[in-house]
Amino acid sequence: DAGVIQSPRHEVTEMGQEVTLRCKPISGHNSLFWYRQTMMRGLELLIYFNNNVPIDDSGMPEDRFSAKMPNASFSTLKIQPSEPRDSAVYFCASSLTGTGEQYFGPGTRLTVT
Amino acid sequence: EDQVTQSPEALRLQEGESSSLNCSYTVSGLRGLFWYRQDPGKGPEFLFTLYSAGEEKEKERLKATLTKKESFLHITAPKPEDSATYLCAFRRSGNTPLVFGKGTRLSVIA
Questions:
Q1: Which residue from B34, B41, B101 is facing A100, i.e. has the nearest CB?
Q2: Among residues 67-106 of chain A, which lie with CB inside 8 Å of chain B?
Q3: Which residue in A4, A43, A49, A109 has the most chain B C-beta atoms within 10 A of its own C-beta, making it the best mutation to test that interface?
Q4: pLDDT at position A97, please?
Q5: Cα torsion angle, A26, A31, A37, A43, sign
Q6: What is the average pLDDT score of chain A?
Q7: Confidence category of residue A61, pLDDT binned at 50, 70, 90
Q8: Which residues pair with A5 in a beta bridge?
Q9: Does an H or E element contain B49, and which?
Q10: Spans in chain B with pLDDT lower than 70
Q11: Model confidence at A1, in pLDDT bands (50, 70, 90)?
Q12: pLDDT of residue B40
């Protein structure tokens, strides 16, 4: 298996622009997680899905952030409009519900200028 | 409030100098304590899961242990390639996601 796939790996954009991050989970995994990592706050959970259904989005910082999972093999995290404080590394992870063990993608490094 | 604290924040060791990383937790209904390794520019990589006090797991130079309040990651005779950030995380009862600590940055100097 190729593992969790994320794209793009790097994104540089200007404040106010829309940013879309993409994730393909490991085949057969039915839970998907979006995290944000910064030096100050560490790894923070933004939202997670079970069987394509959003379960908890309490970590989403504000309405500028939205996430979708239209099918079992694809998810997006969108930021509109982006702000400099959104600059961070965004990780997607997947797991088999019930195991707890999550497998992470390589991350997307987002820079908003 | 459930929480996890890792110490030290950073640790510098000479090659071969054994040491331990600490993960203290306060969780009601713990359903697993997890250790991950993260290399610069990469996502966290799963190492171990511990479920009950007294449990131990080993992988190469790493051994993870669990008590009712803490978990330790023991590194025996480390090598430079063990340099990374080590993250611990817990899972509460039910089908809930992991909550991560901020990690310990380990540097092993040849």
A1: B34
A2: 91, 93, 97-98, 100-106
A3: A43
A4: 77
A5: negative
A6: 94
A7: confident
A8: A24
A9: strand B45-50
A10: 93-95
A11: low
A12: 94
Evaluate whether B99 touches B5 at the Cβ level (below 8 Å).
no
Percent of chain A scoring above 70 in pLDDT: 98
Tell me which chain A residue has its CA closest to the CA of residue B48. A101
Beta carbons within 8 Å of A39's beta carbon, 6+ residues apart = none
Amino acid at B25: Y
B6-10: long-range contacts, CB 8 A cutoff, minimum separation 24 = B6/B86, B6/B87, B6/B88, B6/B101, B6/B102, B6/B103, B6/B104, B7/B104, B8/B104, B9/B102, B9/B103, B9/B104, B9/B105, B10/B104, B10/B105, B10/B106, B10/B107
